[in-house]
Amino acid sequence: MAGVEVSVSPTKKRKADEESSAVDGGEEDVAAPAKKKMWLLPQEEVDWILGQPNETACTLYRELKRSNPSLVPSPEEEKDESTMLLYECTRIAYEEDAKFAKFQAWVRGEYARKGFVEVDYDYFGERAEVFRLCDEAREEVMGHWDHDDDEDWKLFMRTFV
What does the pLDDT look like over 95-117, one tens digit per residue? Predict the structure, then answer.
C-alpha cells in the first residue's frame, strides 16, 4: 500500500523560500532544516485508523488495571515471575493504547481540517518494520505448528490476522 506524493506548487515554494530567507535575515550560511516530502495516507488506512476502538487491552489486562490502577505490583507479587510479566505486558499495552489514541486524534483532526491526511515517508518505513517484526514473532511462536487441515485455525487467521 503506497501513498501518493504531494507536490508543492512553484508559487507556494517560492513564497515559502522568501519567508524562510526573511526569517533567516537573508544569510546564506544559515542552513534551514529540509522539509520532508509528504505523502497522502491511503483512504482505507485513514478509515481503519479512525475505526479502531479507544481501548484494545484484553480482558486480563483490564481486570489487572481495575484491581491495581497504578500497575505497581506488591512485594508479594514481585516474587512471581509470571505475575511480573503480566504487569509488564499490561503497562506496555496501555502505553501503546495511549500512543495510538494520540495518533488517532491527530489523524481525525487532519482529516476533519483538510479532508485527507499527509504523512512523511518515514511513516511507511516504520509501519513496514512493525509488520516485519510482528511476522517474525508470529513465525517464531506459531511457525512450528501445522494448521493446514485445521478449519478453526483457518477461521481464526482470516478473522484476526
Answer: 999 999 999 999 999 999 999 99
Q: 38 pairs with which residues across the strands?
A: 6, 120
Classify residue 158: in a domain, yes or no: no
Segment 58-107, tens digit of pLDDT: 889 999 999 999 999 999 999 999 999 999 999 999 999 999 999 999 99
Phi and psi at residue 39, to the nearest 5°: -125, 145
Query: Range of 77's domain?
Result: 4-22+35-144
Beta bridge partners of 118: 40
> Interior CA angle at 139 toward 124 and 58, to 5°?
75
Q: Domain count for the chain, please give it.
A: 1
- Which residue shows C-alpha cell 522568501? 18
The amino acid at 49: I
